[in-house]
Amino acid sequence: MSVLGLIFDRLNIVGAFKQLGSTQQRKDTLFALAFGQLLVQSTFIPITLTIPSIATYFSVDIDDASWSVIARLLVLGSTVFISARLGDKYGYALVFFVGLIVMSIANLLAATSGNLTQLIIWSGLGGVGGALVSANSNAILSVVFSANERGRAFAVPVTASRIGTLLGVGLYGLFLSFVSWRLVFVSTLLMGLLAIYYSYPILKYHFQGLLGERKSIKINYLSAALLVATLSVFILSGSHLHDGSESFTSPEALGYHVPMHALALALGLLFFVTQIRSSNPFLDFQYFRRKYFSMALFSNTTFHLSMLTIFTLVPIVVEDGLGYTPLVVSCILLVHQSFGLWLPAIAGMIYDRYNPRWLGPVSLMLVAIGVGLLGIFAAVVPVWGIPILLIPASIGTGLFISPYNALVMNTLPENRGFASGMLETTRQMGHTIGTTMAAMILGLSLPATIGLISDIDAQIYYQQGFRLAALTVVWIVSAGCVVALFQKVPVVVSTSGPQEGSAPASAD
Questions:
Q1: pLDDT by residue (tens digit) across 387-446?
Q2: How many CB atoms lie within 10 A of CB 330?
């Protein structure tokens, strides 16, 4: 028997996951969330592959074409928390279902775009839909599944999202090479229709009152707009939307990044002051006094920071530092992502059965080790050795996501919408910080004359910058690991059957 087979047999993972589908409502919920995440993931990360084809088709620069992706990610990251609050007010399932429809319509319109401006607008609309889906998925799951089942339950949409990434990267490359970039958006429309079909039952459960009651809350839309503006500027401040080289040292870069970072800080301070003085805050900072909830969010942020750093740094070291093609990059990242297909199930089973405190620290430690090995040895091993260096990070990634999604939701049982919104917001913040930090450190490591020296000499500078950026990430992820060491895992009472809407005892 293989090691993997032995693990599955020992933990009885198949039997444990069958228990999740003990009622029709639970089956429908898992199908809905799986197809919803499949749609979101296949629509966002792999869609970046279309940028060169779109630039060629519309006869524009790559920088201009990249806005078709930036708009989508920007809107998603800035509106995910207000989407969670809308779920609190109108119902998680209803807002989730509307999000699927919005995404599907946006993808259809994107496929028919007559110019780049139209494509950017429809991409932004797709970001709205993605935020509505992502922000409410966690809350729906926490209503239907009890606290001692959520590790396994979260593994289902997590695995589906990884499949979406792998499917998107594989299929979109073929579409772009042999057909058209429009087929990419048409294919996501088909995924959207499947997601709507499998999600229709949860809409019926919503109207039957089986997916949680709507809350009588008043949303401070002025504060919501201020938060959206703050997050938007924060995300844009880390992007190279300026003329000149993509560095943080050129006059063009300084003229862009310094004011944008200052504006993001000013808006953030303004938002904070307005919320602590408001009788009806849009984002209630009182919840952050829940120590273990805040600790879980911090570790979640550091984890996602490392993930986007990997996706940012690996292409740089492989293409610019070692001189290989983007195809090689895709192969390396596909190997890395493949671990996400089976490890979340094991991690979720371990979390539900044993409720261990060590799972989070070990996961983050493995990520730190993998990134450290990558930073130290990527430039000296054969290119096929890079996926091997990433194995610890790949394992750590697979072990972290589903248990920590469950942990965040379990540490704030009285407000699912807030917990779900902050879970997704910290994920987006981690992505933004990771990308910005990696690019900044690399930019500071490169000489101003990098464009004038030979490719061979330039590769040395890229390798040095990559190593420094990777080791910086190691220290940040290690901080998340230390925090996770002191993370208290909520004690939940094991149940013999589904306990819809049950909540764990407070972790505080």
A1: 888 889 889 888 888 888 888 888 888 788 888 888 888 888 887 777 777 767 776 766
A2: 16
